[in-house]
Amino acid sequence: SLAILPVMALYVIFSRQLIRGITSGAVK
Questions:
Q1: Which of 23, 24, 25, 17 is closest to 9 using CA atoms?
Q2: What CA–CA distance (Å, rounded) separates 17 from 10?
Q3: pLDDT at position 5, please?
Q4: pLDDT for 1-28, tens place per residue?
Q5: String of DSSP letters for 1-28
Q6: CA torsion 10→15→16→20, rounded to 10°?
Q7: Which range of residues forms the domain containing residue 22?
Q8: pTM of the predicted model over 0.85
Q9: Number of domains present in the structure of the chain
């Protein structure tokens, strides 16, 4: 359904930011 598209987009963006934060934290 169309209603799930914005939710999926937010999930992708959030997970990407989360992974970036984890990797940057692991490097330090």
A1: 17
A2: 11
A3: 94
A4: 789 999 999 999 999 999 999 998 887 7
A5: -TTHHHHHHHHHHHHHHHHHHHHHHHH-
A6: 140
A7: 1-28
A8: no
A9: 1
